[in-house]
Design a protein that fits this description.
Layout lengths: L1 E4 L5 H8 L5 E4 L6 H4 L6 E6 L7 H5 L6 E4 L9 H6 L3 E3 L6 H17 L1 H9 L17 E5 L3 H12 L3 E5 L5 H6 L3 E2 L3 H4 L5 E4 L13 H6 L4 E5 L8 H10 L2 E6 L19 E3 L8 H21 L13 H24 L6 E8 L6 H12 L1 H4 L8 H7 L3 E7 L7 E9 L2 E9 L6 E6 L2 E5 L4 E8 L4 H11 L4 E8 L5 E8 L5 H8 L4 E8 L1
Parallel strand pairs: 1-2, 1-3, 3-4, 4-5, 6-7, 6-9, 7-8, 9-10, 10-11, 11-12, 13-14
Antiparallel strand pairs: 13-15, 15-16, 16-17, 17-18, 19-21, 19-22, 20-21
Helix pairs in contact: 1-12, 5-7, 13-14
């Protein structure tokens, strides 16, 4: 079995692979372009990469025997996971190997930014002695804003606390109890954190919500002379806007380890600004981190090719093939329930309870629970969240996960239920199968009976049970060219309150939602994308 190591990894990891007599290991001496890589892929069954080599759809299409891709690191942005999944290729990562190294790099950059160390160093190398040009600022008693309080953000907070900094945290998914335990002050709104911070560091995943979140509008709300850092994901800071903000003096300096395009293009205006410290994506570049992730990815690849075991997979539960086929329908249903409750519940939650009933109690529940959590936490973790790290992510956010196998009498042969608690608020949804596992259904929402196909776009609302309200909503949908595929109604009593749920063929426009919400008898309007 041919293993192609495309990017440099730990020699111990390479040696571990080479010790397996079943494996033929090829180590590339330099990074290849896509065109250079394609001719080498005909007999390759496993590929090992870091962040340099891109495993694109074209690469996957030209590797007919490819079975597994191992990423020596956490993020899999350079791997087309969807294309790999469609081909049945397992994508693995190393979820914990570089947490400390990235946190330490961030804090090193923070200190260098405060004291202008790189600039002073270059001045000395040039034969100068110019103390007045490099006056810095102390970290003690300064305010550090951490955007994203996952594993790395938490480690940065620890170090900032030791240095006597005031630490503010913005993370819509972090519980209050967890924030207190980490000795940080949780700020509810992003705009409220900007004017308070002397330094701002980003530790959020790349997603539609976070892409370009630090832009011209955000910089204008910050304290004049603020310093910003990004050792997380390129693209979270709009580089063009940052350049202009530094030139205007609104931003006092920046420290960057990641960029929108890597390697950097020949023309890169931030490179010319003396207030900017830059490193070439060194977050995981320590001996310890590289050794850890190299060994971890080598062990995972070996275990998969030699023993057929799956671990650290981002697109497949850690199950043998026979068990996977049994639980696969529940993974799908669980993901739908997780996604549904996530879009109905507040962002910040304390507890999630996953209940298995009937025949579902006989299943291996761990992969199903992980699938539910992955879907539920996609907003918090972005593309980095997977079945492997989802429990760790939940813990870092202060979200307690409870798994219950219930013996209570139920109306269904098998039952899966998700309840999310945020203070006194509870959001829940339950599902089952009708006829066979090919027909999943959502059968309860907030304890109300419904019958919904869990796919596409759902429109949910609570309304007073009055004559004509369904026709009124239907007419508004038609007016805005939104087609209703199916409908489910559930009321507590005649003239009381009802839950109305519609399966729609498209996402309703904002103007339609605003018009619906003008009705005083309609509340709790949600649009959910499954």
């Amino acid at each position: 079995m041919n293993v192609l190591i495309c990017d440099p990894i730990s020699p111990k990891g390479i040696a571990l692979l080479q010790q397996q007599p079943q494996l033929k290991v090829t180590v590339l001496s330099k990074r290849l372009t896509e065109a250079e890589l394609l001719p080498l892929l005909a007999d390759v069954e496993a590929m090992v990469v870091r962040s340099e080599t891109k495993i694109s759809r074209k690469v996957i299409e030209n590797a007919p025997k490819l079975r597994v891709v191992g990423r020596a690191g956490v993020g899999v942005d350079n791997v087309d996971v969807e294309a790999a999944t469609q081909r049945g290729i397992v994508v693995m990562n190393t979820p914990s190997g570089n947490t400390i190294s990235t946190a330490e790099l961030t804090f090193s950059m923070l200190m260098a930014l405060a004291r202008k160390i790189p600039q002073a160093h270059m001045s000395m190398k040039a034969g100068e002695w110019n103390r007045k040009s490099f006056q810095g600022t102390e970290l003690y008693n300064k305010t550090l804003a951490i955007l994203g309080m996952g594993r790395i953000g938490g480690e940065v907070a620890k170090r900032a606390n030791v240095f006597g900094m005031k630490v503010l945290a913005y993370d819509p998914y972090l519980s209050l109890a967890r924030a207190k335990a980490m000795q940080v002050e949780l700020v509810e709104k992003l705009d409220d954190i900007f004017p308070q911070a002397d330094f701002i560091t980003v530790h959020m995943p790349m997603s539609d919500e976070t892409k370009g979140m630090l832009n011209t509008a955000a910089f204008a709300k910050m304290k004049k002379g603020v310093r910003v850092l990004n050792c997380a994901r390129g693209g979270i800071i709009n580089e063009t806007d940052l350049c202009e903000a530094i030139k205007s003096g609104q931003v006092g300096g920046a420290a960057l380890d990641v960029y929108e395009v890597e390697p950097l293009p020949a023309v890169f205006p931030l490179r010319d600004l003396p207030q900017v410290i830059m490193t070439p994506h060194l977050g995981a570049s320590t001996e310890e981190a590289q050794e850890n992730v190299g060994i971890e990815v080598a062990e995972a690849i070996t275990d998969f090719l030699v023993n057929g075991a799956v671990r650290n997979a981002v697109n497949l539960p850690n199950l043998d093939a026979k068990t996977y086929e049994i639980v696969k329908p529940y993974l799908n249903l669980g993901s739908k329930l997780g996604r549904l409750t996530a879009q109905m519940a507040p962002k910040r939650n304390d507890r999630i309870v996953i209940t298995y009933g009937g025949k579902a109690t006989e299943l291996p529940t761990d992969p199903i629970t992980r699938a539910i959590l992955k879907a539920f936490l996609e907003g918090a973790g972005g593309k980095d969240v997977n079945q492997v790290n989802v429990l760790s992510l939940a813990t870092s956010l202060g979200l307690t996960v409870e798994e219950v196998k219930s013996n209570e009498q139920i109306d269904y042969t098998e039952w899966l239920h998700v309840a999310v608690f945020s203070g006194d608020q509870r959001i829940s949804a339950g599902g089952t199968f009708y006829g066979s596992h090919l027909h999943p259904r959502i059968a309860r929402i907030n304890s109300r009976p419904v019958e919904l196909v869990p796919e596409g776009v759902l429109f949910l609302m609570t309304n007073r049970d009055r004559p004509g309200i369904v026709g009124y909503v239907g007419s508004l949908m038609g007016k805005h060219n939104v087609n209703i595929a199916s409908m489910s109604l559930s009321r507590d009593n005649a003239g009381g309150h009802a839950l109305t749920v519609l399966n729609l063929d498209s996402v309703p426009p904002q103007a339609l939602l605003e018009e619906i919400q003008k009705d005083p008898d309609i509340s709790n309007v949600h649009v959910v994308k499954l």
